[in-house]
Specification:
four-stranded antiparallel beta sheet; nine-stranded mixed beta sheet; alpha/beta; about 30% strand; about 220 residues
């Protein structure tokens, strides 16, 4: 599987990120602007560096510039897309079959919410894409999915409507099951469910849900 790692410029919990990354095999790594700082700290040599490079530490920038083989995608600061969006589109264009993004959450809520919305881009192409931090793993779904309890990121599994309406939601293997339920935007019913069986089944007829697995 062509699994891509994207390191972008938000907060990265380095101990948990290191453990998570060691459990996965990445064929390609993309460092996004300030995410190059995280790549350096994690001893990751990216295959691509993407962005306008206005938030990367100058010493880190020079370090990666000195390494042969890295492909550079430099963009002007005045652009319509965020650097993270450009990295996601690059991953999809170069054959990603699964994407894990670190540094997509943090103190900048505008970037956090924007990055959660960007999950729609790979979802439309049926490419699994997860935002990962020390406490959460987030994806967007518009079709049926199964989550094994042993693969769950944390104790809690929440489902939040992203589209105005999500119809035919059926949940099995969870503490709070549902049958053919309709979520509407602003509905908090799906917060803090828990997997109680070996696996949880989430079925959707139409619409988009944010699936968030969390731990305290």
């Amino acid at each position: 599987m062509r699994r891509y790692l994207i390191l972008t410029g938000g907060s990265v919990d380095f101990p948990s990120a290191s453990v998570f990354m060691k459990k996965n095999c990445y064929t390609t790594a993309i460092a996004v602007d300030g995410g190059m700082n995280a790549a350096k700290k994690l001893d990751i040599i990216p295959d691509y560096c993407v962005g306008d490079f206005d938030s990367v530490d100058p010493d880190v920038y020079r370090y990666f510039q000195s390494i042969k083989g890295i492909r550079w995608e430099q963009h002007l600061p005045e652009k319509d897309e965020t650097d993270t969006e450009l990295a996601i589109r690059l991953a999809l264009e170069t054959g990603a079959e699964e994407i894990h993004i670190f540094g997509a959450t943090g103190t900048r809520l505008d970037h956090t919410f924007a990055n959660m919305g960007l999950l729609e881009i790979p979802m439309r192409k049926k490419i699994p894409c997860w935002l990962v931090d020390g406490h959460n793993q987030i994806t967007m779904i518009n079709s049926d999915i199964t989550v094994r309890k042993e693969d769950s990121f944390g104790k809690y599994l929440s489902l939040l409507p992203y589209s105005d309406k999500v119809t035919g939601v059926t949940l099995k293997g969870l503490k709070y099951p549902l049958e053919n339920y309709t979520f509407v935007k602003g509905n908090s019913l799906g917060v803090s469910n828990e997997i109680t069986e070996e696996q949880a089944e989430i079925r959707i007829k139409s619409g988009e849900l944010l699936l968030i697995m969390s731990k305290d």
